[in-house]
Task: structure prediction
Amino acid sequence: MRTLTRWHPMHEAMNQMVRRSAYGWSNQDSGERTMRLPIDAYSTDNEIIVTAALAGVMPENVEITVEGDNLTIKGEIPEALENVEYELKERYHGPFSRTLKLNTTIDVEHIEANFDGGVLTLTLPKSEEVRPKQIMVTSVNAK
Result:
């Protein structure tokens, strides 16, 4: 049994606001709708680790760049099946992008990117200059 819902202009505005906040939509310069890729990130003394779930994306279709102090991850989640009438279609398909401003100097020559079970893990080693150093104290009056 179907029910009718009275349409109100505010409904569409609220729906758009929820979609933008839930997925972080953005329009790139081309006007194309792009999902803001959700990530997890943490830092240790020696590196920054960034992870992102990219189910269905092939590793060769992910572009990772470091330019200055910005890390950018871009790609596209493949389209859903064609010629299928979906009863429910909630997963996002299309371009995604995420740029992070790194607050520390990274050793770009030793960045690692791995895919495991649809999860992208980036290991960004901190430059030697910014890593914590332990200074040994010696006694001047040692006999």
